[in-house]
Task: inverse folding
C-alpha cells in the first residue's frame, strides 16, 4: 500500500465490485444487478495493465514473457490451491458423477479457458449452477486471454510507428497507442452488439465481446492528463458521479430484472462509472477510502475466487432451505475469512521478485498449477474416484 503506484480509489472500487458480485451470487434482495461488479473489474484491469505495459514500452525495456510471468504469479497460486482443496473435500463428500464434473471443469479452468467450457455447457443461469464449482473462473479466463494478446497488439503498434517514423516523442507514441486502442475497443463493442442477438452466451463469455470493457480502462490511462491538477475542478465531482453511476446501474438492472447474458447497452453505465472514477484519480474520496473497502479491495481477488465454491457447497446442504438468511450470512462471512487467508498465505507465494528472469518469476506458481493439474487428471483417470463407491 506504500507503493507510489498505489491508488486508494482503485482499491476501494475493487472492494465495492467484489461486494456487488458476492451479493448477487448470494441472491441477496436488491442485488440482482450485482454481476456488473465483474465489468468494473475488467475496466480496472485494463487500466492497470496498460500502465505497466506503457512504462516498459516507453523505456524500451518491456518483456512479454516477464509480463505474463508476473500475471501468472498473481493468479495461479490461489487458483491452484482452490482446485486442490475442492478435489480433496470432494473425495470425502461428493459422488463419482460430481467428481467427474469437477475434474472436467478444472481441466478448462486451470489453463484459464473455462469461459469456452461454460459457454458450451451451462450458460450463466444461477438457478441451474449448483454443481458448477468453477463457474466464476470464466472471468479470470477472459482476463488471462487479454493478458496474452494485449501486449502483442501494443508492441506491434509501437514497432510499426517507430519503424515508419510516425512518432518522434513519447507523447506522439502515446497518441498512436490511444488511436489503436480506441479502434480495437470499437471493434470489440461492435462484436458484442452483433453477438447479443446471434450468440448471447458468446457475448457474455468471450474475450472478443468483452475486450472493449478492458480497453475502456486503457483509454483512460492513455488519454488522461499526466497530473491531476490539469483535470480541472470537476475532478472530485467526476469521482463521486462515477461511483453513483456504478451503484445506480446495479440497482436499475435489479429493478428491471435483466439477465446477465445478452445485456448489451446496459453495460455502458457501470463501465462509464468506472471510467469516471479512474479519470478523476481522487484519492480523497471518503467512500472509496473507507477502511473496510480498502481491506476488501486488497483481498478482492481471493474473496472472488473462493466465494462461489463456498456458496455452491452451502446450497448442497439443507441449511440453505431451513435457514436461508443464516446461510447467506455464513457464506458471506466465510468468503471474507477464507479470502483473507488466501490473500495472506497464497497470493504472496507468487510475489514477483524485483529482479531475475521470467522463468524464475513463474516457477513456484507453475509447480502449484502442475500439482492441481495432476489432481484433476487423477480424478478423471479414476472415473471420479469410483473406487470409493460401494459395488
Result:
Amino acid at each position: 500500500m506504500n507503493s507510489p503506484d498505489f491508488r486508494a480509489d482503485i482499491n476501494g472500487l475493487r472492494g465495492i465490485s467484489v461486494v456487488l458480485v458476492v451479493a448477487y451470487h448470494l441472491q441477496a434482495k436488491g442485488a440482482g444487478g450485482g454481476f456488473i461488479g465483474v465489468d468494473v473489474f475488467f475496466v480496472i484491469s485494463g487500466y492497470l495493465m496498460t500502465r505497466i505495459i506503457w512504462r516498459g514500452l516507453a523505456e524500451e525495456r518491456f518483456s512479454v514473457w516477464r509480463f505474463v510471468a508476473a500475471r501468472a504469479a498473481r493468479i495461479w497460486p490461489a487458483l491452484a490451491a482452490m482446485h486442490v482443496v475442492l478435489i480433496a473435500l470432494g473425495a470425502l463428500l461428493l459422488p463419482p458423477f460430481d467428481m467427474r464434473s469437477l475434474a472436467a471443469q478444472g481441466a478448462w479452468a486451470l489453463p484459464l479457458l473455462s469461459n469456452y467450457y461454460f459457454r458450451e455447457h451451462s450458460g450463466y443461469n444461477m438457478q441451474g449452477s449448483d454443481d458448477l464449482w468453477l463457474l466464476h473462473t470464466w472471468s479470470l479466463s477472459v482476463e488471462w486471454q487479454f493478458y496474452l494478446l494485449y501486449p502483442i497488439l501494443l508492441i506491434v503498434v509501437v514497432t510499426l510507428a517507430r519503424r515508419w517514423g510516425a512518432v518522434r516523442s513519447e507523447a506522439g507514441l502515446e497518441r498512436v497507442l490511444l488511436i489503436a486502442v480506441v479502434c480495437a475497443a470499437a471493434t470489440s463493442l461492435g462484436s458484442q452488439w452483433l453477438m447479443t442477438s446471434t450468440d448471447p452466451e458468446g457475448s457474455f463469455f468471450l474475450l472478443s465481446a468483452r475486450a472493449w470493457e478492458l480497453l475502456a480502462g486503457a483509454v483512460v490511462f492513455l488519454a488522461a492528463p499526466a497530473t491531476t491538477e490539469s483535470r480541472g475542478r470537476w475532478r472530485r465531482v467526476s469521482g463521486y458521479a462515477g461511483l453513483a453511476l456504478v451503484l445506480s446501474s446495479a440497482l436499475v438492472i435489479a429493478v428491471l430484472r435483466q439477465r446477465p447474458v445478452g445485456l448489451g447497452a446496459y453495460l455502458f453505465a457501470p463501465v462509464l462509472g468506472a471510467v469516471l472514477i479512474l479519470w478523476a484519480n481522487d484519492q480523497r474520496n471518503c467512500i472509496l477510502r473507507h477502511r473496510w473497502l480498502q481491506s476488501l479491495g486488497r483481498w478482492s481477488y481471493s474473496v472472488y475466487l473462493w466465494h462461489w465454491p463456498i456458496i455452491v457447497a452451502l446450497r448442497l446442504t439443507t441449511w440453505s432451505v431451513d435457514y436461508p438468511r443464516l446461510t447467506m450470512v455464513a457464506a458471506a462471512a466465510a468468503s471474507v475469512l477464507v479470502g483473507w487467508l488466501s490473500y495472506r498465505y497464497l497470493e504472496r507465494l507468487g510475489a514477483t521478485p524485483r529482479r531475475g528472469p521470467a522463468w524464475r518469476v513463474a516457477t513456484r506458481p507453475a509447480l502449484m498449477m502442475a500439482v492441481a493439474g495432476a489432481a484433476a487428471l487423477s480424478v478423471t483417470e479414476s472415473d471420479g474416484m469410483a473406487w470409493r463407491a460401494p459395488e
